[in-house]
Each structure stands twice: as structure tokens, then as C-alpha cells.
Design brief:
CATH topology: ABC transporter involved in vitamin B12 uptake, BtuC
Radius of gyration: 20 Å
Shape: globular
Distance between the termini: 58 Å
Strand content: under 5%
Mean pLDDT: 87
Helix content: over 70%
Low-confidence stretches: none
Amino acid sequence: MNPYTQVDFFSFIVLFFKRCFFLIMQPSLWQNLSSDEQQIFILIGISVSGALLGSFLVLRKMVMVANAISHTVLLGVVGIFIIAKYSDLRVDSIETIYSSLPLMLSASFLSAMLTMVAIYFLNSVLKLQRGASIGLIFTAFFAIGVVLLTVFSRNAHIGNEIIIGNIDLVNIKDLKLVMQVMLINISLVAIFYKGYSLTSFDPNFAHSLGVSNHRYSLLLMMQTSATVIVALKSVGIVLILIFLTAPVLTARLFVTKLHHLIFLSIGIGIFSSIISVALARHLLTILQVSLSTGALVAMINVFIFSMAAVISCLLKRKVIAR
């Protein structure tokens, strides 16, 4: 039985932190998480990955490339599915890709490579504008992915689930995969932190030191692809962009140092994840209104950014007045 059934907003928050305390004290309870707790921890995992990667995406002005990646991952997933289906891997459904870390990472690598190479070709070889190249690539690759998915996996559902996700369908396996990707992202950012920082702030100086900006861009795109793929089921290909941008842009209004930006962005993401699930449960309990939790996360993140922007403007006016 779900302990959060018929619980209002504030009671949800109190109960959640109480249960978190017991989860820390008794790790065996992690196998019996309620659906609401699974949703919160999945959103937290996506938020942490989004804040880590989004900090560098914003600094490197690659947000629109990340938007392209969020659409082209479908082609990468279908591509790996086709390869695996006609090999000895015995993959007979598209859902297998989402539940297998090696296959999912392979799909993320394929997605990143296809997107980066295609954008580079259109931008550098054909001399198209970067924005036009990105727009053409993500729409074309997404369309190809949908067509191939329909042809090779007729049982797959293409609808609102792939656009905005449906976090009510997640399970403990999805949570484990999200956490695995989160740990991979944390590890890679920690290992390559200096390289990421150097190529983000001064790519020319990094090049003079022999540090390849293109390699770090490809690695960042691969990590972004992996994060998008594990988030498809819960928040979809559109709303994932909120996790990559909104907390970072909010934090950037108040901090100037990179590590402060990352930690504050993570805090904002975690806060919005907990609040969104609590609010969704409250609306269902009090008003009997069932809303998309993923959409609520997006709305809350935008609301936090709006309030932060107002506060930032007021603080700047006070400084100027002095």
C-alpha cells in the first residue's frame, strides 16, 4: 500500500523525510519504495545529471546542441535496437535498450556521433548557419527515428509518452538505471573537471596547451545523450531540456564560481523534484486532478527562475542606488 495515498502537500513532505531517515538507517527498505518515492528519486537523479552537464552546456553555449541531442537520441536508440535485433544479442523489444546499461550507452554514443558529425558537416562544409544546421538535424533525425521505430518495432507506442514522458510508469529498474547514469556523470565530471573548465572558459588557451575542445564536446554530448535516454520514460524528449537549463540559469544569477554554480543548480533541481511530486499528490488527493509530474517540474523550475530573476534585479538596483 502506498503510504502517500490521501496525503496533502505538507504532510507529504514531512512523511517523505521521515521515510528517508528510515531508508538511511535500514538500506534493505530501498527494495520496497513506494511509487511516489521512486518518482522523486528518479527526478533527483535526472536533476543531478542535468545540473552537472547543464552547467557546462550553458557556459559552452551548447544548449541548442543539447536540444538537438534530445531529439536525435530516438534515432540512436532505434539504430542500436536494429543492430542488436539482427545480431546474437537476442533483443526483441525496444524497451530492452532502456533497461540495459551497455546498450543504452551504445545508443548514446551513436546519437552523439551522428548529431555532432551532421552539424559539423552542415555548418563547416556546406557553410550553413549553426542555428539552421541544428534545426534541420534534430527535426530530420527525429522524423527518421519515428519512421524506423514504427517499421522495426510495431509494438512501441509513439505519443505523449515520448514527448513529455509518463513518470507513473516507472519502476525500480528505471530508478537503478537513472542512478547508474548519474554516478557515471558525477565520476566523469570529477575526473575531467579541469579539462571541462578550461575548454568551457577559454578554448583557445586550452588548445594552446594541447587540450582538445572537440573531444570534451563529444564526451559532454555522449553524457547528455545517456541522460536524455534514461529520462525518456519519465519526462520525455522536450521537458528534459528544463533539467539541463533552468536550474543552471537560476543559479547563475547569484554565483560566479563554477563549483558554486554546479552545487546550487543541483540543490535547485532536488528541491523542485520533491516539490513537484508532493504537489502532484496534493492535487490528486484534494482536487482529484491528475497532472503530469514532468510538466509540474518544468513549471516549478520556470517559477523559481522567474522569482530569482526578480530578486536579482532588485538586489542590483540596491547596489546601484548605493
